[in-house]
Amino acid sequence: MEPLTWTGSLSGLNFIFLIVLGLLALSVVLSILASLVPSSGARAVSADGTLAADKGAVGFINMITGYLFYALIALILVYLIAGIFIGTGAGIFGGMARQFLPVWVALIITFVVSITYKRKLGLYGKLFDSTVGMIGFAIVMFWVFTGVFGGVFDWIITHDSLSQVSGMKNKLPGTPLRGAEEGDYQWFLLGGDNLARDVFSRLIKGSWVVVQIAPMATLFAFMVGITLGLPAGYYSGRLDTILSFLANLILAFPVILLFYLLVTPEIVLTGIPNYMAVFLFIFPIIFVAILLNSRYYTQPSLRTPLLIVVLGVLGWLYLSLISSNGAIVAAENYTIPGLPTFLDGFDIDSGILVVFVSVVFVNSPTVFRIVRGLALDIKTRDYVAAAQTRGEGPWYIMLWEILPNARGPLIVDFCLRIGYTTILLGTLGFFGLGLESESPDWGSTINAGRRLLSLYPHAAIAPALALLSLVLGLNLLADGLREESLRD
Amino acid sequence: MGIFILRRLGVMLLTALCLTFIVFWLTNLYPNLEKLAKTQGNFRMSDEAVASFLGDRGYLQPMPVKFGQWLGVMPGWVTEKEDGKTFGRCFEEGTPEADRPTRCGIIQGDWGFSTVFKDEVGSTVATRLALTGKLMLCVLLLMVPSALIVGVLAGMREGSKLDRSLSTFSIATTATPEYVSGVIFIAVLASSKFGLSPLLAEWGWIDGKTLFLGSATSAMADATFWNFFLPVLTISLYGMGYIARMTRASMAEVMTAQYIRTARLKGVKFSDIVLKHALRNALIAPFTVIMLQIPWLLNGVVIVETLFNYKGFGWLLVQAASNNDIELLLAVSVVSVVVVLVTQLISDIGYVYLNPRIRIS
Fold first, then answer.
1. Chain A contact for B179, CB < 8 A?
2. What is the pLDDT of residues A252-270, one digit of tens each?
3. Contact A47/B187, CB-based, under 8 Å?
4. DSSP 3-state assignment of B88?
5. At the topology level of CATH, where does B121-354 sit?
6. In chain B, domain spans
7. Alpha carbon distances (Å) from B126 to A160, B220, B281, B328
8. Which residues of B, range 201-220, sit inside 8 Å of A by Cβ?
9. What ipTM was reported for this prediction?
10. 3-state secondary structure of A198
11. Which residues contact A34 (CB under 8 A, 6 or more apart)?
């Protein structure tokens, strides 16, 4: 069988695509240069009282740029849609476009539903008013759907991410599978890595690792940061001094040194990560308990059953999370018994748990500082004084008056921080810490691929571009959210 | 001001002590020591042999005592074997009794002995630090001016085409960690089979086989643009976006201030407004950000030095940590913690000094 080219039967379009791309770049540069030159024409008054010209030659260039941009988008859509229909006939891109079919369907459904009901969806709906935000959201959701469909349902992947195929070592993208049987996918779409595994399938499986860990770890870091940051900002005084000192202590550690100290097998043996898990993962429970109690303590008949149910479920999740094989900490010479195996809902792989704990640990001091700063600012507002005069308790004020009013910056930071957590996970993988070496996550794959980088770059480039696009998407999403939440 | 600096120095010392103790504690946990004994002695040591090896070398004393000895505030351990040989922390076997110092720790300038490099820790760290200093200097020289230019250009006309293009560029750089941009740069610019280099070589635009060298090992002795630019660019890009965004925000804020409006109404040229009126106030915030960015550069240095095989401080950290070289790792962490704290201090003082509103009140 013939090796695939990048665009297959659509290669006639490549020339047009390149021309449009080149013209677009040229017109963007031109319009930037033109904006530096003052010109006559209709003038708009801007906020600082100055005038800005926006028509004439500049307006013309901008119009051309706009059309070229739409033409580029249309061409990309042609590649995608043709790929979905003729598959590998349209080359590697076509093959990938067809493999991603479930993701396209899910993305289209998400966007159609969200845009239809965007006025009823609060801040999330407003996101669809901003182009940047929509692009970011599309990229992020692309990887989320890819992770879920590929990781849970095994839909998108073409081969097993761990099996090695003889003769496929370091093969270039689009190489036909040697000795392929009838039911097999006939190509390695993005080539083979140095252990003759399919790069494309590993990429998809790797996205699941990120989609699983990064948002959860960020959420936990936020719980820790909020639970400690609110009282530090609200009460100030000695509590604030102590907590801030501790946060600065962790922040003064170079992240990589901390990872090397926490994630080595010797330290894992001592059970320190398990103790940290016990400590850090209790914060969500404390947070939810205080949140509900401060709101409903005046109605004991509602509060008590609610708390029992919620805390029961959370407690079970907590114990399942921290205990494995019936023990919370299993060091060499002692064990602390945890939830018995038959009650244990799920087991987290110990490598993933360690990575998770250290990422939460690194992120929470920053969140703490942000929340503390916001609380310091908001506690001087009138509605807080009103709540104090009403005789509300301090925790009610913190969680139901201050926190909702700090949500804008916190949501934006949440998106940015997921991106940062993704980078941290990649860093861990890059140094071969925590996760197993055959793990398909992007950091480990880049680490494995970088040794042969100048000869066979595809094995490292693919996950690198994937990580780049996901983090970029999260940044754009955060930017769009910031713009829209400022508009309120 | 004096009291402020003194108080900051006090907090800084306390932080440094706490942090070094944490590192000391983590590196001196028993499994680490056991591994040390087995790599130093032999791998099939029995548990008793490990215990006596460690006991003889003072590793089994209580943690605060060991920490005190390492700091040099407590007398170092002395072991007398049954056969009469005496050795201790501060002297080798066979040193006459008169020449034996009682204390030797980092206060006395004794950083210990590296088990990986078979050399004094102090001199090892100093050489590597000098190499990384060269790298950092180049990074700062590239990163700070370009970040400030990008930020000021973007912020002087908020919402313009230029602003949007430059902001997208800075978002893209903050989204590209060093290990991603480094990999892409090597593949595109420094591979003899892929990317730009084969094309350029074919056209005869470059002399060698590749546009840049993908390994910076040769740059340790003799740094040229060819072998040193890629690592410098890789570190700079990631930090640049953040500084540029902060500069842009600060610049955009200043540009809406009343006095800028007054200047425009007076008819001052736009370039003069930006350079003479706005810039001074707009650069206060980026200064703090740049100082606080230096600890982050340390991370980038570790990644880039590993990726480009440049044997500097970051490479040393990886070697010390992955080979369980306790004393070297301690020295490395002390240095990095001090770097972090000193930059924080400078940024605090600098902020107060630069900002007349705070300085005068």
1. yes
2. 888 888 888 888 878 888 8
3. no
4. strand
5. MetI-like fold (1.10.3720)
6. 2-99, 121-354
7. 48, 14, 38, 12
8. 214
9. 0.89
10. strand
11. A57, A58, A61
